[in-house]
Structures are given as C-alpha cells and as structure tokens.
Amino acid sequence: MSANTKANRFQTFEERANPELVGPRVEALRKKMKTKKVDAFLVPRADAHRGENVPAGDERLSYISSFTGSAGTAIVAQDKAALVVDGRYTLQAPTQTDTDVFEIVDLSPTATGDWLIANLKKGQKVGYDGWLHTPKEVETLDRKLAAKGIKLVEVSNLVDAIWKDRPAPPTNDIYTLEVAQTGKSASDKLAELQKQMLEKGADYLVLTLPESTNWLLNIRGSDIANTPVSLGFAIVPQSGASRFFVQPEKINPVIQAELSDVTVLEPIEELEEALKSMYTDSVWFDDATAPIKLVNLAKSVGATIITDKDPVVIAKARKNAAEVEGMKAAQTSDALAMARFLSWLDDEAPKGKLTEIEIVEKLEDCRRQSNELLDISFETISGSGPNGAIVHYRVSENTSRTLNPGELMLVDSGGQYRNGTTDITRTMATGDTTPDQRKHFTLVLKGMIALSRVHFHKGATGAHLDVLARQFLWNEGLNYAHGTGHGVGALLGVHEGPCGISGVNHNVLEEGNILSNEPGFYLEGEYGIRIENLIMVVPSEKNEKFLKFDTLTYTPIDLRLVEKDLLTPEEIEWLNDYHQKCYELIADRLEDDKQEWLKQATRAI
C-alpha cells in the first residue's frame, strides 16, 4: 500500500465546521419540532451502536451544531439552544459552532437535565430518538424532568427529517480473522457466552456494540473510519447459532458460509420483527448501551427484560496470549515508524517551514512503510505551539499553522495494523526550551512513570490509580481535564471499555487489560504537553494478590525537555531502562542514519 498521493491518505484536512450553517439548520429543526409538538429536541453524538466514530449519515450533532468532536449533545429548544461538551472540547466547541445560537455548557452527570429545567416550563415536552438513547439515560433524565412537570417523549429523528442529502448507511464487506490471530474460535466464544446466558436465565442476549459483535464472531469490517468493524445487531440464543442483522448488501454466499457455524446473516430490516417474536422469552440487554427503542420493542410484546452489562465487553478486554502477541507486534511496527518520524522531525523542525498538515502526512507515510497498516486508529492530533493546548485538536486546511522553532510540538496518533492497534503521544522540543516548558514536561513525565511502576492489589480500579499520574501536577496547583487512560482494543476501537484510568472509572482492572497511560498539561494560548504509552495489566512478582503494568510502547521520550533535577533516582533509572529497551527493540531494523539518531535519543541521563 503506497502512496504518497493525498487521495489515498487515511486522514483528510478539509474544514468540516461551518458555523454559518448552524442558524438556518436550527431554525429548520425548530419548525419540525412544532409539527411534532415538542418544545425541545436532543441531538447526541452517539449513533445506535454507541460508537466513538460514526458513519457519515449519523453525524447529526455535527450537522446541527457544526461541532466535530467525538462526544457531546445538542439541546435545541424553541428560543434557546445548548451544546454540552466535556473538558476535552471546551476550547474547540466555541470556535466551531455559532455561539449566538448555542450556549456552550460543561458536561456533568446532570448538565442536560439542569439546562432543560432552567429553560423549559412545566407541561412542555422534550423529544428524543429512541435509537440514540439508552434506557439508563432516558430513565435518569425522565425522572429528573418529571419532578418539574416536563415530559420526555420519543419521536422520529427530527434532524434526519431536515437533512436532505443525508448519506446512506455503509455497506462494506465483512471479513473473518484466523484463530491464530484471535486466540479463540468464534464457536468457543459463543459457547462460553451461552453458558453465561444459561446462568443468568436469559433466553436471548441482544448485542448492539460493534466491537462486541465483531469480537464474538471473529469478524472485522470498514464501515466507519479508523475502527475496523462491520456494523450490525446480534441476537444470541441460549443455544445454537446467533443471528446478525446487517445491511442486506453485506450478505453474500461466501461470508454466510464462513460464518455458518456461529451466525446467520439477516437484513437489518428484520431486526424489529425478530424482537417482537420474543413474547414468551427473557431477553438480556445492556441498559447502558442498547437503544431504548429495541428494549421497548421487546417489552411491548411481553418479554421479560434482563438488564446487565454486555458480557462480551469484559471478556474482550481480557486479551488472550494471541491477542497480546499481535498487539506487541503492532507496537514494534509503530516504534519503527515513530523513530523514522521523530528523526525526520528533528531535522526539519528547526528550519521553521513545517506545517501541522505536513507533519501528519509524514507520520502516515512512516507508518505505511511497514506494509501492515490498515488504517490510522484515530485522526492524528498535530498541535504546534498554542494548538497543542487544544486537547482533541483536529488540524484542517483552515487551522494548520507553521511550526516555529522553539515551540512545543504535540503529536497524538495511532495505527490499525493487521495484528493490532496502537496509540501514542509524544511532545517534542523544536529548539531552545524554557524553564517552564521543562518543568511542566517533567511533572507530566513523573506522573506517567509513577503509573508505569505501580504494583496494585487485585480488585483495584482506575479510580484508585488516577491520582498517581496527577500528584506532581496537583502539588503545583495544576491539573488536566481528561482521563489518564482508556482501554485499547486488539484490532478494534482505540478507545475500549470497560476499564480505564480516571477518577470516575470504577471497573476492576484485570490481567490482560491494555490501557493508555497519558497524563498531560495544557497552557491555553501557549502549548500542550502529553506523554502516552500503552500499558498492560500483568501479575506482580511481589505478591500473588497483586498486579502491575508492563509497558508495551517503546518510543523515545524527548530528553531535551526533561529537567533531571526534578527526577528521583528511581525515576531516572526507569527512564534509562526504558530508553535502553527502545534502542534494543528496533535499532538493528533502522537505517544507519536513523540508528545514530536513536542512539542519541535514548542516551542515559
């Protein structure tokens, strides 16, 4: 797969936000709201599969608000509107939407309900699309609004009604993975799942998350950018083959035969009738991820509803030996790409001519050299100087700036390789560094090292460990407004549940979990700093009741930004050992000039 041509690139740079379209679209939506007799309408970023990345035809939040972030909710009332976003997007959102139309609201567990109560009157109605909200979301919001006399009502999607050129659903082919890569056959996975269903007393399990269906059936696809999944809904019976409901164009004799032991492919149009046939059965849904539309369909015919976590999510997060081997191979491919990229950046950055787009393109070219790259795992964050302070910055033709020598350069990126998924952030010096840059970088590094080195008792969660990465910043009165780490899939979503490292993640960390370790610091208008490695939960040699993290990512950390006097001897030892491993892993596979760069970049301090 070659290609230096822009047409073949995984990442494009067109400006997707156009605030000028916001006002007319919101007014069109308000007219539709009047015809449905609702006083407000909710427009979440999520699609029916709760994906971080969604097909073009499900980009409703972007369509109505012009905001392109991966999370958020628009609330449109007749005379006011709000855009609810989390800390990653508080800088981005106001620049992308029309702030004369949308008030920017910081996300909190009650933000949507609080805004509706503050801006609606008793007796008014809030409309929502049942495909895009879960039972848990709806019940929580309904309870809050009902206490103030405001009614929550399900309606057809009103954004779709005004979106004249809405793209059609994706129909890309399904493909299967070999057991050598997955580590377990789909038949064995299905049998284990059905045993759990028997214990739960569930006649059927409905799976709506694409990562769950794809992992269970050992399939992948290309329906959405950056996440190699095929979209569909699965109904799993307590025995026998499952049913996988997909766009009819995906169904062909070849893939049907390959999957015949574990599933029958059926047109998506038949899903609702399948649920209506379960009137004497007990049906298991995850009420935190399944569309309430499907749950209500089963309820409407008298099915007994069981609500509990999607059991595949937990099984999938515990990577088996084959998945771990693939993930390690992918990180090695990425380490080679990153070494080539960083050595190039060191040569070119001091010239003061590189643009943020050119940096993204060069990194993709370096990754493509492996001939194993299927896609990038998310759009590369290429933030020079002040743009680095925008946590989820997306460079476009309109925003791309030239990297000036002396500025910090933050690059957060990853690849979907044939054997696994990567995610790495490095922040680089491009000239002389300042004391503040070095101090802030070293405080972030100390937090990353603390998390890398910790041994923790079985049963601990990410919420227990999050403070380890923040403590050095906190001691200086500093912080960052994002989680410290997220789960990572094996040739699946780069952001994977249920485990994570943040103050609000209470899922138990288990052997085989792979997570990111990415503390940061952001000085608005000046620079951003983030250092990210992937880490894996493994047994601790200190105590059989304890676990620890093994580092999977091996790419040099910029020593020009390290203030050695702020590091303890143990931290220095960790950093030197880490860099020695970086060198040993890839030195003999690099070109001579890159080997020399790597030797200098991984020198002991």
UniProtKB/TrEMBL annotation:
For whether the record's keyword set contains Protease, the answer is yes
Whether tRNA processing counts among this entry's keywords is no
Q: Which GO terms describe its cellular component?
A: cytoplasm
User: What is the protein name stated in its UniProt record?
Assistant: Xaa-Pro aminopeptidase
Provide the alphabetized UniProt keywords: Aminopeptidase, Hydrolase, Metal-binding, Protease
Q: Which GO terms describe its molecular function?
A: metal ion binding; metalloaminopeptidase activity
Task: Report the residue ranges that make up the Peptidase M24 C-terminal domain in this protein.
Answer: 545-605
